[in-house]
Amino acid sequence: xxxxxxxxxxxxxxxxxxxxxxxxxxxxxxxxxxxxxxxxxxxxxxxxxxxxxxxxxxxxxxxxxxxxxxxxxxxxxxxxxxxxxxxxxxxxxxxxxxxxxxxxxxxxxxxxxxxxxxxxxxxxxxxxxxxxxxxxxxxxxxxxxxxxxxxxxxxxxxxxxxxxxxxxxxxxxxxxxxxxxxxxxxxxxxxxxxxxxxxxxxxxxxxxxxxxxxxxxxxxxxxxxxxxxxxxxxxxxxxxxxxxxxxxxxxxxxxxxxxxxxxxxxxxxxxxxxxxxxxxxxxxxxxxxxxxxxxxxxxxxxxxxxxxxxxxxxxxxxxxxxxxxxxxxxxxxxxxxxxxxxxxxxxxxxxxxxxxxxxxxxxxx
Length: 365
Known about the structure:
By secondary structure, the protein is of the alpha+beta class. Helix 9 (279-286) packs antiparallel against helix 11. The radius of gyration is 35 Å and the shape is elongated. The chain has twelve helices and 16 strands. The strands form four sheets. Strands 7-6-5-8-9 form a five-stranded antiparallel sheet.
């Protein structure tokens, strides 16, 4: 070890942000283990690295006692006072025991310690960079795929996109660019582990936040999202400014904003509805694109009974119940849908289309 070694540690401190003192302390601790292993000793030793010259010395630490039982760990008071007359019983005496060829061992050990600490520091920096991006969108490049995951290169790290988190319409090949939602960032013994998703409702929410300036600025709020990834989604929006149309803002001029999101989600249909404070109006909007005649709210059961025109029943329910299911997820209410004929038969309600409600919503295919 010499001044070049100390200068190298100073350079690492500047470039990697690892304090030189931390590195030296780690090297000293590692050298103690190396000394004991290479020289087959159980002595209590201390390694000292001169912070200015890089000179390394090894000291055996012995306790001053009256009767020496273990010469490796103890020294008599008489022998200690030959070194210095100031020593008293129970004091610790340090005797230099630096081996002649210890420099070679020290160099190898220092290299291993510094390399390990740099790797740990870089892992820490990567973890800190991505832990703040949890529940956010990242863009990466597809690297490879195995039986469980698609691996996405995010630049400094490779993230895992489980096959279970892919949309049914997702077909990727090596080199494709892909947007995904970070669901989890963990700091494991093997380094940071980042888990991605393409099915999470948060992906849809973040895409709207990126594409719609009014949402980014906080003028328009996303109140709720319901999603069946790859097929259909519903998003409820509300405007804090009465002069700003939340649905129109999300659709964008000639539908360009929402179409960008639809393209990213491989054609997933998106219903954008206006969030309403009153449950009946909100539920009616949530069933878009179906028209609704009447909504009866049962607070205790948190259930809404919806009556739709006969010809709209299949549209309100949707294919395999998808539209009704998404509306229930979006609003948080159970929804029971009846046609006018069913309502008349079950509740004695008279048919009328004059009560048909206006729905402030839009459906994007």
